[in-house]
Amino acid sequence: MRFTRLRLNGFKSFVDPTDLLIHEGLTGVVGPNGCGKSNLLEALRWVMGENRPSAMRGGGMEDVIFAGAATRPARNFAEVSLTIDNSERLAPAGFNDLDQLDITRRITRDAGSAYKANTKDVRARDVQMLFADASTGSHSPALVRQGQISELINAKPKNRRRILEEAAGISGLYQRRHEAELKLAATEQNLLRVEDVVENLA
Ligand code: ATP
What we know:
Layout: E1 2-9, E2 18-21, H1 37-47, E3 77-85, E4 100-108, E5 112-117, E6 120-122, H2 124-133, H3 148-154, H4 157-168, H5 172-201
Antiparallel strand pairs: 1-2, 1-3, 3-4, 4-5, 5-6
């Protein structure tokens, strides 16, 4: 899967619809301080399902919505779309029916986030899993935040291990294990109820 375009609309400083075309060989984005370079990286992280406002340098998730400027009113929503070349059909089942995959996340004030894969509504979890299984995602070590290198140097071994697990593409397994454990606990409760009922009938 190759990312080919990042489209921003109302996201942070990108108030007007803006396309970043990700051609092969793109290795850097340069521009004056404060022009929005880090916002581009944050948009990429956000559309892949990032849910920590701190990772977006904000206090709440709605802080990603354009907050207004001297000449422009604030917007009511922000939307980011990531276009993925899926011509080699590497996307997982459920996302794999077209040559091009557009993942869109939209946040509306007081209404939270919604995700789409092409035109179909999908859950945040589905999008997070899609990218985690592709060894990328909002926590990917390929996306290096400002200050992250010094954090890494000072990190505890357990946190450093997470980075290796992300790179190995196994981090999605933690979420699946957690979900399996919840199902197991619910099933054990159901079995106890069944035993109670059987005892009462005996
Ligand atoms: P530097 O080179 O200094 O790191 P940069 O090019 O990475 O800068 P960013 O940090 O991406 O720049 O962008 C910062 C700009 O984004 C600031 O001008 C800030 O006011 C603007 N900005 C951030 N959030 C919002 C928002 N919600 N609404 C409007 N503008 C915003």
